[in-house]
Q: What sequence folds into this?
C-alpha cells in the first residue's frame, strides 16, 4: 500500500466529494441532467444519483469537468495523471477503460488486483458488503441492490459474499468512503487475505 498516495485520494474526496464522488462509474455524468441543480446549486450529495459512464475524454483535457463525478478509482486515476486524461480514455472501449482505471489506480495506491476489486466493485468480496456484515451499527446506511438489508437477502438464501448480491452504490456517500479509506490507511482493516476476503488487522480498533 502506498500510504502517501492513498492520503492524497482521501484528501481529494474529502475536499470535493459532495459534488464529485459517485461509486457507480469510474468517471460518470448524471443520467438525468435535471438533477444537476440539486447537486451543484442546492448542495445535495452526488452519490445519491444515478450516473452513466463518460464514453471518451480528449487526451490531455481535464478528467473531471464541472459536472462530472467519479468513484475511488476515478479519483486515484485522475490524481495519478495530474487530473489530465490519458490516451486510453480517448477511445470508447469499455473493457479497455475498465482495465485502465483498475491498473492505474492499483499501481498508484499500491493495491493488488484483488484488493482493488474488493474496493472498486460491489459484488463477491466487496469491502462494503463485508462491513455491512461485520459492523452493521457503524454503517447503517449501506444497502444491497433489490433487497436493501443483508438480513432480507439472507432470507432469500444468499450469503453476504455471494457474487449475485451487489452493493447499492448510491448508499456509499463520500464521507463513508473517506472513513473506510482512512481505516485502510491506518491498517485497521485489509482489503483481501490469501483467500481474497477482507479481514481485520486491528480488531481492537472496532468500536
A:
Amino acid at each position: 500500500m502506498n500510504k502517501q498516495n492513498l492520503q492524497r485520494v482521501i484528501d481529494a474526496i474529502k475536499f470535493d466529494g459532495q459534488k464529485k464522488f459517485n461509486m457507480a462509474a469510474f468517471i460518470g455524468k448524471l443520467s438525468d441532467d435535471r438533477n444537476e441543480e440539486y447537486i451543484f446549486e442546492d448542495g445535495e450529495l452526488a452519490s445519491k444519483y444515478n450516473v452513466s459512464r463518460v464514453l471518451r475524454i480528449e487526451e490531455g483535457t481535464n478528467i473531471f469537468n464541472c459536472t462530472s463525478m467519479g468513484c475511488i478509482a476515478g479519483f486515484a486515476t485522475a490524481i495519478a495523471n495530474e487530473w489530465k486524461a490519458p490516451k486510453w480514455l480517448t477511445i470508447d472501449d469499455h473493457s479497455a477503460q475498465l482495465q485502465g482505471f483498475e491498473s492505474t489506480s492499483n499501481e498508484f495506491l499500491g493495491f493488488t488486483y484483488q484488493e482493488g476489486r474488493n474496493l472498486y466493485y460491489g459484488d463477491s468480496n466487496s469491502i462494503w458488503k463485508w462491513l455491512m456484515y461485520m459492523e452493521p451499527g457503524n454503517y447503517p446506511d449501506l444497502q444491497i441492490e433489490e433487497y436493501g438489508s443483508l438480513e432480507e437477502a439472507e432470507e432469500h438464501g444468499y450469503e453476504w459474499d455471494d457474487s449475485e448480491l451487489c452493493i447499492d452504490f448510491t448508499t456509499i456517500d463520500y464521507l463513508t468512503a473517506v472513513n473506510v479509506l482512512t481505516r485502510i490507511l491506518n491498517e485497521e482493516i485489509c482489503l483481501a487475505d490469501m483467500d481474497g476476503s477482507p479481514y481485520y488487522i486491528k480488531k481492537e480498533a472496532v468500536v
